[in-house]
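User: Hey, my collaborator sent me this sequence without any context and asked if I could get a structure. I don't really work with proteins. Can you help?
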Amino acid sequence: KEEAEQLLEHEADALQHFRAILDRKISAMRIRCHGDYHLGQVLYTGKDFVIIDFEGEPAHPLSERRLKRSPLRDLAGMLRSFDYAAYVGLFAQESSGLVRAEDLGYLELWARSWSLWVCVTFLKAYLQVMVQTPILPRDPGELRVLLDLYLLEKAIYELGYELNNRPNWTKIPLRGILKLLEPAT
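Assistant: No problem. I've predicted the 3D structure and written it out in structure-token form, which is a compact way to encode the shape of the chain:
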């Protein structure tokens, strides 16, 4: 409840993030993307990774799923899924009784640290490969605005999903949104 109230206090900040895209021309290509890219869509074969289910987000109409977009939208989906991986592991330990309630705050710090480390590692590797292509914005400021927008869009979508399907998990996207709305340091 406390985090939801904090989010309501930051409604203007969230809207400003979306307005930031209107303040500049983004010089990048749009392509047909996966549309629902997250850890659950990546399988390890023992030798390689295989990406599955290219039909996009099933809850969205086909006309929307066929739109060409920046691949940063899929990148945002994967980055957000690392947050979920950290918290789902923590929730599983808590519900099985392997973690004491008084230890949750401490373990949550480790979960967030792991998620941040994995996100940074994945993002660096992605950008090293993609920076030489015309697909991504060349200007780091444009790239940042676009990625932040997609991360916020994804986290807001997740919040709606969790409210409708797994209310106990709403803290994952709520905390993600609040983190995205923090002033850049």
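In plain terms: The mean pLDDT is 91. You can pass these tokens on to your collaborator as they are.
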